[in-house]
Amino acid sequence: MTDFVAPASTDDTPIEPTLPGGWELVVGLEVHVELDTATKLFCGCANQFGSEPNTNVCPTCLGLPGSLPVMNETAVALAMRLGRALGCDVNRSVMARKNYFYLDMPKDFQTTQYDQPTNSDGKIELGDGFVVGIERAHIEEDTGKSTHVGGGGRINDAEYSLVDYNRAGVPLVEIVSRPDVRTIEHAKAYVEELRGILLATGVSDARMEEGSMRVDANVSVRPHGSDELRTRCEIKNINSVRSLGRAIDYEARRHIDLWTNAGAPDQETRHWDEEGGRTTSGRSKEDADDYRYFQEPDLVPLEPSSEEIAAIDASMPMLPAARRAALLAASDADADAIGILVERGQDELAMVAIDSGADGDKVVTRLVNDLAVDDWSNVTAESFTALIQMESAGDLSATQAKQVLGDLIEKGGDPAALAAARGFEAMDTGELESLVDQLIADHPDEWSRFSRGDDGDRKKMQGFFTGQIMKATQGQADGKAVAQLLAQKSA
Amino acid sequence: MSERISRGDVEHVARLARLELTDDEIDLFTGQLGDILEHAADIEALDVGDIEPTSHPLPLVNVLRRDEIVASVDRDEVLAQAPANEAGQFRVPPVLGEEP
Ligand SMILES: [Zn+2]
Predict the structure, then answer these.
(1) Class of domain B7-44
(2) Chain B contact set for A99 (CB, 8 A)
(3) Within this chain, do residues A167 and A34 fall inside the same structural domain, yes or no?
(4) Model confidence, pTM
């Protein structure tokens, strides 16, 4: 079988404008997230990433005969919390055995939920208002991790495999969307939004690079305007939001090529090959899904009371969508910029600064541009607000404020003290004025172009004079004050 | 030989569980599994329309434990139970095909 070769996709270009004539994309997403618990789902072994292999294992998570699972109450609480955050119904639920034979699952079955999941029928609203339905969000256990040795690490050429069961039994929730997504941008936005909800609720640390959040995409295409669901392929091994876009793009083109030239694609699981930029066929058809699900006899049903659910709702923090709306109402800033701040968790800084009277648009812009760092834990709402106030009052120029913010990111503290340590003092208006006068005297030609020239000249010369002043004051002068002085003197 | 399950069904289930069965064993298990299904059919014949479905024989729900770490077992002891190990991991024969 020769694999379809699609033209290399350029990362972030949406597929839609280039989708060959009359095809529509249909995507559903299945996201696995590891719950932020201390222990595994059914035993007291630590739920910890990066431990030495097979050091967090016991008879239960190794599936040894005679061991019995007991459900972790925190895992159940977090799963229900996520369900409510996704607007789901939280149901009476029953665990089930999904039987299959594979080295990563020592019991030869995965304990999961089948026809009675904990959460069902929710939705996620994306930043632009597009709504993706959630079919279910069920509890299950994670599998172990295998490494294939020899044959260049490729599974089918391996000489043998090594297995680490530290991850086996780690609590997961699998969030299954409805096939509502029609564009790559929405697929990516869905994952980002879900990640924001997971972080806001404390359900998971949602790190794609560490595997605590894993995204599979069900991809199919259909003629525009049709409401049929054609054969889909499930794409696994997607390790970043960027890869998600590339994988969907490749797979959609592969399907269109097949429908156009060869007929229906096979319904199968495929693997995203990051380096090759393509998907490859996974399991052989012989191993078609036949999991022989049945109810887990060693675990009893979960039956949340309406009081429990009410308590979850009452303790729900503000979710990203509501935080975006609040900041938009308070600042009237650009929606994309607001989205970025909420994603970074910096909207709280903005809200406090705006509440203290700072200009919303300015606050949002400053945060978006100057707090684009991974670690900003030293910056508090109080210190950021104090800094913005110093800038607004003219005690610091924009350049100085930026430098003080840099210090704040690095070591924290009181912005006034940090400004003083850098020798930043508000320049006396008289001092600034004499500098401006001196400059005008030194550059009569430029000054006449400024005061008598056309708009273009005036603008150019304003730049010249401001630049000279900044040079003379090493950036300490307030640009606004300089502009005012120049305007006054030419009037 | 039971009509409720065929030799083919037994071979299929054995393959899913990666069990290698001899012809005699397939005959034996086809008969035994047929008997079990026969028994289930007896129960199926009862009128249970008024009975609430149960998912567990005991009338219990929400049996939970606290999220507290309990010491794991000694790795060397566990690995010693396996036919082969390497670098702190279980060493197993090569696997064909991807994870389900
Ligand atoms: Zn364990």
Answers:
(1) mainly alpha
(2) 16-17
(3) yes
(4) 0.81
